[in-house]
Amino acid sequence: MNYLNSLTRKNNVLSSSTGLMNFPRFDHNDHSRLENMHKVNNLERRFLVWTGKFKSYGEVPDFVSQVIMEKSRNRMRIKVANYMILATIAGCVVMVYKGKQDAKRGESVAKQNKEWHAQIKADSEAKTKETS
After folding, report:
1. For residue 31, what pLDDT band results from cuts at 50, 70 and 90?
2. Poorest-confidence range of 21-30, 39-48, 78-87?
3. Where is the stretch described as Disordered (predicted)?
4. What pLDDT score does 93 carry?
5. Could you report the per-residue pLDDT of 52-68, keeping only the tens digit for each?
6. SS in 3 state form for the chain?
7. Assuming Cys at both sites, which of 60, 81, 110, 127 could form a disulfide with 45, CB separation 3.0 to 4.6 Å?
C-alpha cells in the first residue's frame, strides 16, 4: 500500500458516522501468531518451572510466546551467573584458608618446587649411572 492510499484510508476511517476515531485493527492470521511462538524443549520446560512462570513441569504448554521464553532464559542466565560468582568466592576463601594452613606448617610453593627439581635431578643421575 502506498502513501497516498494510506492517507485516504485514514481520512475515511476518521470521518466515520459516529464521530469517534476508529483506527483499523490489524488482523493477524494464525501464521503470524505462530511466528511469535516458540516450541519448548525439555530443558526450556525446566527453565520455565525454575523461573516460576509455571508451577509444574506438566503445566508447560508445547508452544510458548517468544517473549516469555526469552525472559525465562535471561533469568536463568542471571541465576547461573550469580551461583558461579558465589562458587568462585567460596573457592577463593577455601584456597586462602588452605594456604594459611600450609604456611603455618612451613610448606610453600617455592619449597615444593625445589624438592621437585631435586627429585628430577636425582632420577636423571640414577638413570645415567645405570646406562654407564
Report:
1. very low
2. 21-30
3. 108-132
4. 98
5. 888 988 888 889 888 98
6. CCHHHHHHHHHHHHCCCCCCCCCCCCCCCHHHHHHCEEECCHHHHHHHHHCCCCCCHHHCCCEEEHHHHHHHHHHHHHHHHHHHHHHHHHHHHHHHHHHHHHHHHCCCHHHHHHHHHHHHHHHHHHHHHHHC
7. 60
Give the Cα separation of 9 and 1 in Å (integer). Answer: 10
What are 5's three cell numbers?
492510499
Residues in the chain: 132
CA atoms 100, 104, 107, 109: torsion sign: positive
CA 93/CA 88 separation, integer angstroms:
9
